[in-house]
Amino acid sequence: MSAEEKTLVDRCRHGEDDAWRELVDRFGQKVYSVAYHFTLNREDAEELSQEIFLKTFENLHRYDGSFPLVAWLLSVSRNLCIDRYRRKKREKSFRFVTDDAVLPLLKSNDDPAAEALKKERTKLLFWALAEIPEDLAEILVLRDLDGLAYDEIGKVLDLPDGTVKSRLFRARAEVARRIRERHERRGSTGAFQTLALAAGGVL
Amino acid sequence: MSCGELERLFLAGASPEHARRHAGGCTTCGRLKADLEATEQMSAGLAPPALAPSLRKSLIEIPRRTVSCEGAERLLPLAVEKELVAEDERRLANHLSRCAACSEAAETLLGSRELEQPVAPPWLAARLSASRPAKEKRLWAWILDPKAAIALAYAAAVVVMLLGFNPADIARRVSASQLGENTRAAVNVAESSLTDRIGAIQEKVSRTVQVWKGRAGGYGRAAFSNAVGLIWKSSGSKGRPEERPRNRDGRGAFRERETTTITTWRA
After folding, report:
1. Domains detected in chain A
2. Other CB atoms closer than 10 Å to residue B193's CB: what's the count?
3. ipTM greater than cut 0.90
4. Which of A66, A117, A152, B133 has its CA 20 to 30 A from that of B183?
C-alpha cells in the first residue's frame, strides 16, 4: 500500500500530471472532509484544502512511504487544521452552529422529522466538541467523523496507539458529560439520549 | 463517575458485549456506557461533505501555479541568470511567497549579484608578482646549478688527489675554451680553493715542525741541565742549600727554630 503510494508520489515529483490528478482524486474528498469538520464552513474548508494540497505538493520530497499517504497529508497540514480550528472557536462558530453548517453532513432523508432530529444532534455534537480540550476534540473528529484508523491517527498526531485510544475514550466521555451538564442546567430530567433526541431547542 | 473498567476494556480492545456486560452489573459505569453509546450514535451516519468540482479542478492545477521546494532549487539558478520564462517566474514567485526557507535562499542568491566589487589596494599587484611561486626544477637544471657543479668539482678533486695527482695542475692543463661557463667557474673555484688548501697544509706542516723543533730543543736543554746537576752532586755538592727536613710521609715540616704567629682577629 505504502510502496504503491510512494511510487505515486515519486511520479508527482517528476512532474507527471496524471499522477497528481490521481492523488487529488484519491485523497481530495478525505482532505476536504477533515477540513470541513475543522471549520464547519464551505469557503474556509475549500481554502484549507487548497493549503493542505499546496503544502503537500511543496513537500513531496519528504514522503518516504513509511506510513499511509493520507496520514502523511494530514500530518503535514496538522498545524493548518489546528490553527483554523482555534480561529473558529474564537469566532464562536462552534458554539453557535447554524443549520447551514451541518446540512452538508446530513444524508437526505425522506422523513423530515428524523432529518430534523439528526440535524439537532449534529449541532449538539459540534457544540460539545468546542467545549472540550482541543487535543481530545481533534482525535474524536479524526476517528468518529473522518473514520481514520487508530494507527493513521497516531501518525497524524505523532502519538502511540494506546494514547490515541485512551484520548478517544476520554473525548467521548467528556462530550457526554458536557451534554449532560448542559441538559441538567436547563432543568430537564430526561436521560442523555432523550436530550440528544430532543436537542432542537437547546442550541 | 466510572470505576475505570470500561476504559480498561476499551483500551484492551474488548468487544462491545464485554463492556455492556460489565456496565449491566456496575452501578457507576451503567450511565457512562449509555452516554458513550449515545455520543457514538451522534456522529454515526453523517455524510462526508461533497468535494465541489471547482475545488477538484483547482487542486489539480496546483502544479501549474507553484513549484515544490525541489522545483525551486532547480529554478533559482536560472532566476539568478534572469533566464526564467514568465510562467516559471510566476510559479517560483508563488512558492517563495509561501516558503520562508526557499525565500531566504533566493534572497541570498539574488543579493549576491548586487554586492559592490572590492577595490584592490595599490600595493597588491607588486606583492603578488613578487610572491610568484618558483618553477619546479628538472634534473638537468639541478646538474647545471653552480652550487652542484662546485660540489662535484670538489668531489672530483678529492678523487684525483687520492689517485696521487695534483688537481690544480690538471685544471691548468685543460683548455679553458673547451669548458662551459659554469664548469669553468667551478674549475676556477676548485683551483683557487685547492691552492689555498695546499698552502694552508704547508703552513700547518711548517708550524708543526717548528713546534717539534722547539720541544726537542727544550728537552735537550733539560737533559743537559740534569747531567750537569748529577755531576755536581757526585763531586760533594758544596754550596747547595740544606734540604728541608721531611716527615715520615715525606711532607714538609717546620724547623725547630721556626715559629709561627697566630693572629686572632678581634672586634
Report:
1. 1-93 (1.10.1740.10), 94-203 (1.10.10.10)
2. 16
3. no
4. B133
Please name the member of A20, A107, A169 whose beta carbon is closest to the beta carbon of B60. Answer: A20
Q: Which amino acid is at B27?
A: T
The nearest CA of chain B is from the CA of A149 a distance in Å of 14
Q: Are A16 and A41 in contact (CB under 8 A)?
A: no
Residue whose entry in the numeric block shows the C-alpha cell 462552534: A94
**How many cross-chain Cβ pairs, A to B, lie less than 8 Å apart?**
125
What residues in A contact B67, CB-CB < 8 Å? 58
Distance from CA of B114 to the nearest CA of A (A): 29
| Phi, psi values for residue B190, rounded to 5° | -60, -40
3-state DSSP helix/strand/coil percent for chain B, to nearest 5?
Answer: 65, 0, 30
Question: Per the CB < 8 Å rule, is B40 touching A54?
Answer: no
pLDDT in single tens digits along all 203 residues of chain A: 578 899 999 999 998 999 999 999 999 999 999 999 988 889 989 999 999 999 899 889 889 888 889 899 888 878 788 877 787 777 766 667 888 888 888 887 778 888 888 888 889 898 899 889 989 999 999 999 998 999 999 998 999 989 999 999 999 999 988 888 887 777 654 445 544 444 444 44
The C-alpha angle with vertex A174 and arms to A172 and A176, in degrees rounded to 5, equals 70
Distances, alpha carbon B133 to alpha carbons B128, B129, B130, in Å: 10, 9, 9
The values of phi and psi at residue B242, to 5°, are -65, 140
